[in-house]
Amino acid sequence: xxxxxxxxxxxxxxxxxxIQHYIQEHQLQPGDQIPSExxxxxMFSVSRxxxxxxxxxxxxxGVLTIRRGVGTFITTGCNLFLAQLQQDRKKLLLxxxxxxxxxxxxxxxxxxxxxxxxxxxxxxxxxxxxxxxIALQQDYYDEDVAFHTLLMRASGNHVMIQLIPIIEQAIALxxxxxxxxxxxxTIATHRAVAIAIxxxxxxxxxxxxxxxxxxxxxxxxxx
Length: 223
Known about the structure:
The chain is mainly alpha-helical. The protein folds into two domains: 7-87, Arc Repressor Mutant, subunit A (Orthogonal Bundle); 104-222, Four Helix Bundle (Hemerythrin (Met), subunit A). The model is unreliable at 1-5 (pLDDT under 50). It contains eleven helices and two strands, in the order αααββαααααααα. Strand 1 and strand 2 (71-74) form a beta hairpin.
């Protein structure tokens, strides 16, 4: 039976996905050791308790074996689980993407109403920094995350603010899944969102962020 994912368990589930992606990207095999808890805390920018819970989930599924005092290893003979994990990964990513498509555009009226001048200046600064890093073919994850989290904070919606760690992980997962191939789209749509906000154009801001999120979904489905 497929696991029911609640907000409380979503961050560990996303970290499960990051670990799975790491295993596949580095072509680790049954018997290989994965990074330590402290290393994964730094790699994925999550707490130790989140990493611990993610490892526990994979251990329960039979994917990882924990050797106390030694480390955590890919379980011998676990290849049958990897295909299922890949299927679960796509489902989880799409679930999160569709959740964001529903929620983030509807925050725009609050953002337009509540955003401060300093936050507007920071939005445009983040756009500039993203464009610079993309032009240099550098990682722009930090700027992308900062852009979306600034919008959530600017909305003043405390429930959405609590979801920021989940959105951070979701952005990282989509960047990994699409190989950062949406660079030019990222430049255009992020700046379109910022311009619409500064003009007080709620409809334009909603359309721009919806377009940005839909591009991510389409690229992931049809890549």
